């Protein structure tokens, strides 16, 4: 169940204004069963989490994302995760250093595509098609298992010191799509000083540092090839950075191809 938090802010002149943030009810993530019958190959599935260090409901979802990435619990699925830290919690006592208005806008696009009432945290989106409260392990299992049945095109990513050579082949029928390159960092731990999570140390995985558009796919195109400059930034731990490339239909949001790579691997 999602609740809407209304926070009244008063000034010394006794003038009051109100702002609201919709969040999901806080609860411990469910234990996800390991599904047996492991096939020889796994179908990549993109799992996005919209989260914030300022939201008390988010740490259980962050742990769920970590479980999905590190344990790969669903047979037939190679779970590829991205954590988008939104910025609409930043005014409520703690500014999330990894938050971005761009990521809030990406979430808003899902709100519009899926005809939702509003954005909320923590929200998990699987392959751009299914959304639910991010700490709900049962729904995550079901959504990932269903997504793994849908075939995707293969993305080959070859990394050099400063660029990524990207090649997509074997695309099945699709609508116009955008090719994205995400730089995501693992191993981040934040000592939160204030806000709803004040006093907690929050570990993160797959924190999106940068999301770039590297190309477009017309509905008539069955392949794609390009070279893209690797994103960089101050304070990034390069040894913990991984690169995820995915193709997503512009109207439906369906992920039609995905791959990942890491320097040195």
Read across the widest sheet, the strand sequence of neighbours is 13-10-15-16-8-9-14
Q: How many distinct beta strands?
A: 16
Kindly estimate the percentage of residues that lie in beta strands according to DSSP: 35-45%
The poorly predicted ranges are 1-39
Describe this structure in words.
The chain has 265 residues and is mostly beta strands. Helix content is 15%, strand content 42%. It is built from three helices and 16 strands. It has helices spanning 58-71, 101-113, 137-148, and strands at residues 2-10, 16-24, 43-51, 77-86, 99-100, 123-126, 130-133, 153-159, 163-169, 177-185, 188-191, 201-204, 207-217, 224-229, 241-249, 255-261. The strands form four sheets. It has a seven-stranded mixed β-sheet, with no helix packed on it. Strand 8 (153-159) and strand 9 (163-169) form a beta hairpin. The longest helix is centred in the N-terminal third of the chain and has 14 residues, at 58-71. The chain starts with a strand and ends with a strand.
Structure characteristics:
single chain; disordered N terminus; 16 strands; mainly beta; 3 helices
């Amino acid at each position: 169940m999602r609740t809407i938090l209304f926070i009244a802010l008063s000034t010394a002149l006794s003038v009051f204004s109100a702002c609201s943030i919709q969040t999901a009810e806080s609860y411990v993530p469910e234990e996800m069963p390991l599904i047996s019958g492991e096939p020889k190959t796994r179908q990549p599935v993109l799992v996005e989490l919209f989260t914030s260090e300022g939201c008390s409901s988010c740490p259980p979802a962050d742990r769920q994302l970590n479980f999905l990435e590190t344990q790969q619990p669903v047979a037939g699925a190679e779970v590829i995760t991205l954590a988008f830290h939104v910025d609409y919690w930043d005014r409520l006592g703690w500014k999330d250093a990894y938050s971005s208005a761009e990521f809030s806008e990406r979430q808003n696009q899902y709100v519009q595509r899926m005809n939702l009432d509003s954005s909320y945290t923590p929200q998990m989106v699987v392959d751009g098609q299914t959304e639910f409260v991010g700490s709900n392990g049962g729904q995550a299992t079901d959504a990932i298992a269903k997504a793994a049945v849908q075939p995707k095109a293969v993305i080959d990513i070859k990394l050099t010191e400063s660029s990524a050579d990207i090649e997509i082949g074997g695309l099945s029928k699709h609508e116009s799509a955008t090719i994205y390159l995400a730089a995501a960092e693992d191993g981040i731990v934040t000592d939160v000083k204030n806000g709803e999570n004040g006093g907690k140390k929050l570990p993160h995985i797959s924190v999106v540092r940068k999301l770039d558009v590297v190309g477009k796919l017309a509905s008539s195109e069955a392949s794609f090839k390009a070279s893209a400059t690797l994103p960089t930034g101050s304070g990034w731990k390069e040894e913990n950075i991984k690169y995820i490339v995915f193709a997503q239909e512009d109207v439906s949001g369906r992920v039609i191809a995905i791959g990942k790579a890491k320097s040195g691997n």
